[in-house]
């Protein structure tokens, strides 16, 4: 049953493809800036308002193909700017195609310095293909606020 649940989450993660994006791609610097802005917003406005705004497709936290996602240190989703259906899901045991546990890597890197860049393989929603991704993460209380870019 646990295995089936992980498969369902993986399918949800890997199958969400958006066709409405503009051709503009966010940069590494823009991703970091957006994550820092989101972290500040969460600190100032609180969870309810912040998570709602992070998931607003027309909101201030959607820039180019960049979006904010928030997890706790156990890899539970609390907000996802591209796929709100992931809220409440846990991906602690989700392996990437390269055999790594990307969420665990992000958690460990963020715990070390309070913020970090983490590289991993993930399906690019823009192309539908597996691609290298780097995500900037920052600790805000018991949450990790993240924004990633595809290389």
From TrEMBL:
SMART domains (UniProt xref): Cache_2
Annotated keywords: Cell membrane, Membrane, Signal, Transmembrane, Transmembrane helix
Subcellular location: Cell membrane
A GO CC annotation given for this chain: plasma membrane
Signal peptide: 1-22
Membrane protein topology class: Multi-pass membrane protein
Highest taxon in the source lineage: Bacteria
InterPro entries attached to this UniProt entry: sCache_2 (IPR033480)
Principal location class: membrane
Residue ranges of every copy of the Single Cache domain listed in the record: 3-102
Entry keyword Transmembrane: yes
Keyword Calcium annotated: no
Pfam families noted in UniProt: sCache_2
Gene3D superfamilies: PAS domain (3.30.450.20)
Name the record gives this protein: Putative cache sensor protein
Organism field: Candidatus Terasakiella magnetica
């Amino acid at each position: 049953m646990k295995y089936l649940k992980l498969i369902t989450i993986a399918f949800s993660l890997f199958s969400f493809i958006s066709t409405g994006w503009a051709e503009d791609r966010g940069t590494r610097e823009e991703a970091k800036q957006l994550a820092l802005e989101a972290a500040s917003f969460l600190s100032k406005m609180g969870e309810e308002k912040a998570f709602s705004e992070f998931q607003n497709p027309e909101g201030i936290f959607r820039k180019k193909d960049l979006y904010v996602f928030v997890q706790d240190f156990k890899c539970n989703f609390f907000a996802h700017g591209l796929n709100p259906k992931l809220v409440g899901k846990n991906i602690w045991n989700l392996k990437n195609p390269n055999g790594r546990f990307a969420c665990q890597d992000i958690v460990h890197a963020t715990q070390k310095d309070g913020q970090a860049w983490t590289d991993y393989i993930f399906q690019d929603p823009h192309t539908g293909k597996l691609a290298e991704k780097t995500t900037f993460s920052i600790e805000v209380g018991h949450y990790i606020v993240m924004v990633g870019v595809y290389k």
